[in-house]
Write a structure and sequence with these properties.
The chain has about 325 residues and is of the alpha/beta class. It folds into 2 domains: about 1-100 and about 290-310, NAD(P)-binding Rossmann-like Domain (Rossmann fold); about 100-280, NAD(P)-binding Rossmann-like Domain (Rossmann fold, 3-Layer(aba) Sandwich), CATH 3.40.50.720. The protein is about 30% helix and about 15% strand. The longest helix has 19 residues, at about 290-310. It is elongated and about 70 Å long.
Length: about 325
């Protein structure tokens, strides 16, 4: 049995993970660092098993690879796979969910603490010798604030939204939740989207990208926020109307934005947010801690093992 891994480089930094864990499941393994869309069909060829992260597996690719039986994803999202085409051909598609909850929640609070504690600014001042010249023992030209008592609005209340809420509890924040599916006996006040935007000191997005959530963050909703509020997005870039957010930041409609995702990834040099005021952008790293990727790799390995044993798990079709 032949296994093809199409984009291993999306899983590893400096070789800190190895694909050798898949060796027991196939007599032949071809592992590619990255694969362009037009290369996918040729590289898969006669293989029965494929693992990938973002490479498009289209109907045309499946038509060209008649032996394909299984597509395993190094991701929760599966929009790169033509699911109806896979289903019609009896190809099983399995994803990896709930592996990054702790890591994403951690980055959300790293963003919050960056904003409210001003650590980079104070570190720079100290390195430039300004504390040495201070007339007082404590030098605090940049205003800092406590998280306690701040209102955190969470859009989306899946596993990550729930984890963020629990950490917010520990900081003494006031949590509001806006979600499509309201849980029974919710532990926090449930509010509308409009209320979530209007009342937030911090608004954090944890919803999937759907037709309903596309550009959920737009000029009208941003205009309803407090001028002191900040926006955090670790969900999907398409949830934010980027031109509207850039305008809001540059015109002091809100105080800042922290973004780990953008509509186009890798980032386009022309994105309006690249030089927007008070906008911190990280290159889609929320899921990337070593422990998180190790967990993801274990899920993908387990998925493949279960498929080969005849009892597939984490099926999306």
């Amino acid at each position: 049995m032949r296994l093809v891994i199409l984009d291993w480089d999306t899983m590893t930094a400096n070789g800190d993970l190895s694909p050798e864990c898949f060796r027991p499941f196939a007599s032949e393994i071809d592992c590619y660092g990255l694969t362009r869309p037009e290369e996918a069909a040729e590289r898969i060829g006669d293989a029965e098993l494929v693992l990938c992260n973002k490479v498009p597996i289209t109907k045309a690719v499946m038509d060209a690879c008649p032996n394909l039986r299984y597509i395993g994803l190094f991701a929760t999202g599966y929009n790169n796979v033509d699911i109806p085409a896979a289903t019609a051909r009896g190809i099983r598609v399995c994803n990896a969910g709930s592996y990054s909850t702790n890591a994403v929640a951690q980055l959300v609070f790293a963003f919050m603490l960056d904003h409210f504690c001003k650590l980079p600014l104070y570190n720079l001042d100290v390195r430039q010798g300004k504390w040495c010249k201070s007339p007082t023992f404590s030098c605090f030209p940049f205003p800092t604030m406590e998280l306690a008592g701040k209102t955190l609005s969470i859009i989306g209340f899946g596993s990550i939204g729930k984890a963020v809420a629990r950490i917010a509890d520990a900081f003494g924040m006031q949590v509001l939740v806006s979600t499509r599916t309201v849980p029974e006996n919710p532990p926090y006040p449930m509010v509308t989207i409009a209320e979530a935007f209007a009342r937030a000191d911090v608004l954090t997005l944890h919803c999937p990208l759907t037709e309903e959530t596309k550009e959920l963050v737009n000029a009208i909703r941003l205009g309803s926020m407090k001028p002191s509020a900040i926006l955090i997005n670790t969900s999907r870039g398409g949830v934010v109307a980027e031109h509207d957010l850039a305008d809001a930041l540059n015109n002091n409609v809100i105080a800042g934005a922290y973004l780990d995702v953008l509509q186009q990834e890798p980032m386009s040099p022309d994105t309006p947010l690249r030089h927007a005021k008070n906008c911190v952008i990280t290159p889609h790293i929320a899921w990337a801690p070593l422990e998180t990727r190790q967990r993801l790799l274990q899920i993908v390995t387990d998925n493949l093992e279960h498929f080969l044993a005849g009892n597939p798990q984490n099926l999306v079709n």
